[in-house]
Amino acid sequence: MADTALTQPAPAAFASRSAWARLRASRGWSGFWFMLPTSLILGLFLAYPLLKGIWLSFTNARIGRDGQFIGLENYAWLWDDDVFWLAVFNTCLYTLVASVVKFAVGLYVALLLNKHIPFKSLVRSVVLIPFVVPTVLSAIAFWWIFDSQFSIISWSLRHLGVIDGNIDFLGDPNLARACVIFANIWRGVPFIAITLLAGLQTVSPSLYEAATIDGASNWQIFSRITLPLLTPIIAVVMTFSVLFTFTDFQLIWAMTRGGPVNATHLMATLSYQRGILSGTLGEGAAIATAMVPFLLVAIGISWFGLQRRAWQSGGTDR
Amino acid sequence: MPVLDRRSLLAGAAATSLAACGDLAGFAKAWAQSAAWKPEPGASLALLRWKRFVPAEDEAFMRLVDAFTQATGVKMTITNESYDDIQPKASVAANTGQGPDMVWGLFSFPALFPDKCLPVEDVAEAVAKKYGPWFPSAEAYGKVKGKWIALPVAFNGGYLNYRISALKKAGFDAFPTDTAGFLELCRGLKKNNTPAGFALGHATGDGNTWCHWALWSHGGNLVDANEKIVINSPETAKALEYVKSLYETFVPGTVSWNDSSNNKAFLSGDLYLTNNGISIYAAAKKDNPQIAADMDHAVWPIGPVGKPTEFQLAFPILAYKYTKAPNACKAFMAFMMEAANYNPWLEAAQGYLAAPLANYPANPIWTNDPKNAVFAQAGQRSLAAGGLAPVSERIAAVLADFVVVDMFASHCTGREDVKGAIRNAERAAQRIFRNS
């Protein structure tokens, strides 16, 4: 029948309509026109900078000077650069530890906030404060908290007689890493908690009632009802969280500038230092481009690991 | 090139007399009539400058700007940014060809994009004729490959700030003048629980300056005059060992210090010797007179090389080639450097800044308070950022990447032995100086 319809000659009235009129009437073209502004915006502000960045990474461009194509030279130097690999290690450690802890704490806070507690709205608003405070301000606050001379923690412990001298929070490589991860967790937990709370509130109370009547324990209710139903939103929230954490810049820059001795340099901060402050745009772009595969893997784990569950389509997980 | 004839000389003399009478606006008008650079009609200039140290300096600078505007009709917009933000913004302006007409920043930032800077040969030579010669380090900051691309307006002297009582208690009547005595002093201070401390973190000013002093004073250099990498040398090894010995006497935490950390520690009484500009003294005079009375300043000790190897902050000003008013930019630069403008501004800076030319008229700021005197020598005693090498975009990258600071810090913290620390610095230098 479709063939018959296609072989039919077009009605005379339709054939005589102008191309502009046909264009206006076409559903396909309508879709195109609606998509065009978004495509232009995405192309101009997302695709172009990304492609330009990738192109720069294959050049020896410096600030103020167009570069020449040098192939993989920037990457070859990075491959043999201890500071770069240290930044890769730091970024992975920072992302992994901060994301896992943020998720665990965020989920716990969300479960608490989902219960009937006094002043529920007020408590929920207060929980959001770390997320609302500008990152640079909170980073400066943490810089003071962990200062080598003026740390409130060192001061308190000294006055309690627990320690004799100040703790060198930001001077010891491992302590410095722990401090910046802590600051990131503090800042990131509200985002996860509030988003998961929104997810929790979509779970039908009748499921909990049925489970309770069936004699399910709290753990069973959590593991068999809450967690599976939250999984789609966990996938989304963790993807965002991993993205934000992996590309973090402000906290590190305000607290340590990548120190001590590059122990807290992330790929983003190293890229800025080399590309903008040192003026070697090509090398900075190579570091930034090197983040892309790591990001794709991290997003892939979050997305495909959590989102594509067979049970969500009515099947059974293997 | 400006041409000095009888008429301009007479006008210049009139301008100087007016300035001597304290009439800045009158001086500016007379100067504008005789100046070699006539601003373009209807010109306006945007200047991005480093954020002030003290309000008085900013106020004096704005008076100077107003006088220039009144005399020439050139409207000026001044914006301020912190040290660390100037370089990226200047770089972006150079890259995009849009932004301020002039940038006044730190260290060797014009060398990051010399091709984008307006040549200022004529201004530099005219100023040198009047007040020169430029100190060698000033010339090194203003020139790239023999061409003037920026005007080194001033130096910020970073010298040794110490507590007099702690020095005496450590057994010293005067501040030691050599590196061996300096180490002994630091050991004495540590013994008395009045420790020294120098930034080994990513402190753009304090960290870079003292670490380069330590390297150069022992004869070590990252690169030679031909930009050949020479960091792997016995002299560097000696510098590393020396700094490690110093580090053992430091107050804990210096590896994480930024540029403000030592100020805070000194003013709180936790630190008794450090390197800094005059800002600690200025703050102490205002809020902590006890510390101000008990502190003084000293020049950097001389190391085995036998001559001063200080590294002071330079403040060059540049104009971009893309500016629509190159003559107005040059006129403003020349106007700034006129003693009638420059000296009151320098005085208002309260010792933070020192002149880059050998024959500037003496400024009372250096004699009013004997504790200020040390800072007057900043331009004269300083080496330029490259040490032996010419200032270039690569040298700017060495500073921005903290190559020398990280070399010392990695050894002091025990992360690297001498060979490892040198190898890492050498590797970073190879990356930065490749294809040079």
Question: How is the topology of this model organized?
Answer:
The complex is a heterodimer of chains A (318) and B (436).
Chain A: H1 2-7, H2 12-15, H3 19-25, H4 27-56, H5 73-79, H6 82-113, H7 120-127, H8 129-132, H9 135-145, H10 152-159, H11 173-200, H12 205-213, H13 218-246, H14 250-255, H15 267-277, H16 281-307
Chain B: H1 6-20, H2 24-34, E1 44-50, H3 55-72, E2 75-81, H4 83-96, E3 102-104, H5 121-131, H6 136-142, E4 143-144, E5 147-148, E6 151-156, E7 159-163, H7 164-169, H8 179-191, H9 206-217, H10 234-247, H11 261-267, E8 273-276, H12 279-287, H13 289-293, E9 295-298, E10 310-311, E11 313-319, H14 326-337, H15 339-348, E12 353-354, H16 365-368, H17 378-381, E13 382-383, H18 393-400, H19 403-412, H20 418-433
Parallel strand pairs in B: 1-2, 1-3, 10-13
Antiparallel strand pairs in B: 3-11, 4-5, 6-11, 6-12, 7-8, 7-9
Helix pairs in contact in B: 1-2, 2-3, 3-15, 5-14, 9-10, 10-19, 11-12, 19-20
Describe this protein's structure.
- The complex is a heterodimer of chains A (about 325) and B (about 425).
- Chain A is mostly helical and about 325 residues long.
- Chain A has two domains: about 1-55, no CATH class; about 75-315, MetI-like (MetI-like fold).
- Chain A is built from 16 helices and no strands.
- In chain A, helix 4 packs across helix 16 (about 280-305), helix 13 packs antiparallel against helix 16 and helix 15 (about 265-275) runs antiparallel to helix 16.
- Chain A is flat.
- Chain B has about 425 residues and is α/β, with parallel strands linked by helices.
- Chain B has two domains: about 5-155 and about 310-385, D-Maltodextrin-Binding Protein, domain 2 (3-Layer(aba) Sandwich), CATH 3.40.190; about 160-310 and about 400-435, Periplasmic binding protein-like II (D-Maltodextrin-Binding Protein, domain 2, 3-Layer(aba) Sandwich), CATH 3.40.190.
- In chain B, the strands form four sheets. A six-stranded mixed beta sheet of chain B has the order 2-1-3-11-6-12, with helices on both faces. Chain B has a three-stranded antiparallel beta sheet with strand order 8-7-9.
- The radius of gyration of chain B is 22 Å and the shape is globular.
- The two termini of chain B are about 30 Å apart.
- The model of chain B is unreliable at about 1-20 (pLDDT under 50).
